[in-house]
């Protein structure tokens, strides 16, 4: 049985790889009249903090495939923790994954801003973006995701044993210290990503801006891309391609796409434990001017 399963999975992986490369070749022919940028076409990389609009950014970046020879589907997705087990991957695994990417790929990752990863991503080979969300909305979204949407999540069974939403929200804010699997408080979970905010080569995106001021944010996404590619195509055509690529119904983890939802769920006690755990995180990310909220 295991042999059959492994063989089947291997065949599916091989088929996906062949299909992906074939589609890239078709794209290259389709846009063969476009002049190739200096140093070749780049890799489009969407970096995200978990539960912050990962799939939304993926869809937007894939929209560039309508105006330039980029892949029409994601090359791959990388996460710093294995989905089913919660085991933390090594820095070497992250670098090995980055090394699999090639020009005209579109890829997505929950990727820590370690020195070696930053050096590679902030090179001419990449056009990188980093999306994040109000951490208060992140922890609310995390509760719904782990409890109701992803039965294979490493914390799913534990969240199911908790008495109510309030108890689950406490865990999403504070993390878990009772197990060997790493799941820290919200500030410590965000800390490895903060380095992306300091890199001029990386365009940072507030998830909220894509909801509340999409046109201006997509324009920024486009301009960041054009700095590297100098694509001589109508800006309106590019913007239309990015806009029409957005389809929340195709996101497997999309729930509401709203902002400020935390206000409906945070009690006075949740506010207190969040402030104690997060410190000045909201100020660093530009969501508050101080801790008086």
Explain how this protein is built.
By secondary structure, this protein is α/β, with parallel strands linked by helices. It has a single domain, classed as P-loop containing nucleotide triphosphate hydrolases (Rossmann fold, 3-Layer(aba) Sandwich), CATH 3.40.50. It is built from 14 helices and five strands. The protein has helices spanning 2-30, 54-62, 91-99, 115-121, 135-149, 156-161, 165-174, 186-190, 207-212, 214-229, 235-244, 262-265, 268-278, 281-284, and strands spanning 43-48, 77-79, 106-110, 126-132, 203-206. It has a five-stranded parallel beta sheet. Helix 3 links the parallel strand 2 and strand 3. Helix 5 (135-149) crosses helix 7 (165-174) and helix 7 packs parallel to helix 13 (268-278). The longest helix is centred in the first third of the chain and has 29 residues, at 2-30. 32% of the residues are buried.
């Amino acid at each position: 049985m295991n042999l059959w399963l492994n063989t089947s999975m291997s065949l599916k992986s091989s088929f996906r790889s062949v299909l992906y490369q074939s589609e890239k070749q078709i794209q290259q022919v389709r846009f063969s009249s476009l002049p190739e940028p200096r140093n070749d076409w780049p890799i489009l990389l969407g970096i995200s903090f978990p539960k912050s609009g990962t799939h939304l950014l993926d869809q937007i970046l894939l929209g560039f495939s309508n105006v330039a020879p980029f892949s029409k589907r994601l090359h791959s997705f990388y996460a710093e923790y294995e989905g089913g087990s919660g085991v933390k991957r090594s820095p070497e695994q992250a670098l090995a994954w980055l090394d699999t990417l090639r020009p005209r790929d579109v890829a997505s990752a929950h990727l820590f801003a370690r020195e070696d990863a930053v050096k590679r991503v902030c090179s001419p080979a990449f056009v990188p973006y980093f999306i994040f969300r109000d951490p208060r909305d992140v922890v609310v979204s995390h509760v719904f995701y782990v409890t109701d949407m992803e039965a294979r999540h490493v914390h799913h069974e534990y969240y199911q044993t908790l008495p109510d939403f309030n108890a689950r929200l406490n865990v999403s804010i504070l993390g878990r210290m009772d197990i060997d699997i790493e799941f820290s408080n919200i500030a410590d979970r965000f800390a490895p990503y903060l380095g992306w905010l300091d890199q001029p080569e990386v365009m940072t995106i507030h998830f909220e801006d894509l909801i509340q001021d999409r046109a201006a944010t997509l324009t920024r996404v486009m301009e960041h891309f054009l700095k590297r590619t100098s694509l001589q195509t109508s800006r309106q055509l590019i913007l239309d391609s990015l806009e029409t690529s957005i389809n929340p119904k195709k996101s497997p983890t999309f729930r509401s796409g709203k902002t400020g939802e935390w206000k409906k769920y945070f009690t006075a006690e949740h506010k207190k434990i969040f402030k104690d755990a997060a410190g000045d995180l909201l100020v660093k990310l530009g969501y508050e001017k101080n801790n008086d909220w």
